[in-house]
């Protein structure tokens, strides 16, 4: 397998999984329109996916610390797609929650193992990890367009068509899984050995809290920005879908930019500055009038996603003996837990207005900035290299696993 092929395949596979996280928020306006759900009830659907994913991802992280399980990549991809595909077929709210939760479990199973494999495939490059993260953000960005194309055409009964990315993503994972299994067989062991280094639990906890506040801001906006922009601009469903698409597209720029900036400055400095930008941008989304809201939506998503891949590798470096657990928490628990705030935002919006409900989100990136002010840049076990050094690495690192 060529040197860059594994990270490319993993990035595409990441997109095919995270499209289903984006689908949950993109389906909310259609559930409201077809089933007359209130904002609070509809946001409970986002909560169903987030809650199970929050609980399950650290569990899968612990398992991948003990055993290498590359087969989880295609299996979890298919599970994530199946849940969303089934979510529109029943008018029963409990069944809808169950199917969305099933998708959340698939997403949860995917991320810890994929982060472990991606770091091997990245060969120590921040930029390569940025590309892997960008795959996920592209999936988010495509979700509202895919949902609009399918569900706006045929209604919720057409959601089975949404399984197609899962089929493609599972196929993309198979060559990487095969390479990992061959390497694993050659090593004669199924156990993932812990890397050297001392765990910095205190810094990891601070990092995790920063990611929680980031998650509340991003998931809160992704759930309600479509409806909010439609209200403010008086537009159609397309107006709101455009805002959600801008939110997700800005995140792709932020992911790649984060890896590039970390090649020049340390990860903590880059993340800290990006959260300041994000705090100002969220305020613009809430209070600046007119079409300029699209600009602030883009700045918000970029500011919240510049630290994204950097936080994953920081977490792995703070807990070098438990890389899977660290990945499960930074990619899973702390990201998904933001969905827990969704019903509260929806209930406040039902009682007051969406603007009032979204206003507290301005504080979230500011709180993340405060936590990053006290974080050190860790010494890296095994070395996350500069990108020049990673490009000049030996052939032994060319295969993942």
User: What is the CA-atom radius of gyration, in angstroms?
Assistant: 20 Å
Poorly predicted ranges: 189-194, 380-401
Percent helix:
over 70%
For the residues shown, what is the average pLDDT? 81
The tally of helices reads 16
Question: Would you write up a description of this structure?
Answer:
With 401 residues, this protein is an all-alpha fold. It is 76% helix and 0% strand. It has 16 helices and no strands. α1 (5-35) crosses α7. It is globular. Residues 189-194 and 380-401 have low confidence and may be disordered.
How would you summarize the topology of this molecule?
Layout (H helix, E strand, L loop, with lengths): L4 H31 L3 H28 L5 H16 L5 H30 L3 H29 L9 H24 L13 H33 L3 H26 L4 H21 L5 H13 L2 H11 L4 H14 L5 H10 L2 H5 L4 H10 L14 H5 L10
Properties at a glance:
401 residues; globular; single chain; mainly alpha
Tell me briefly what this model is.
With 401 residues, this protein is mainly alpha-helical. It has helices at residues 5-35, 39-66, 72-87, 93-122, 126-154, 164-187, 201-233, 237-262, 267-287, 293-305, 308-318, 323-336, 342-351, 354-358, 363-372, 387-391. Helices cover 76% and strands 0% of the residues.
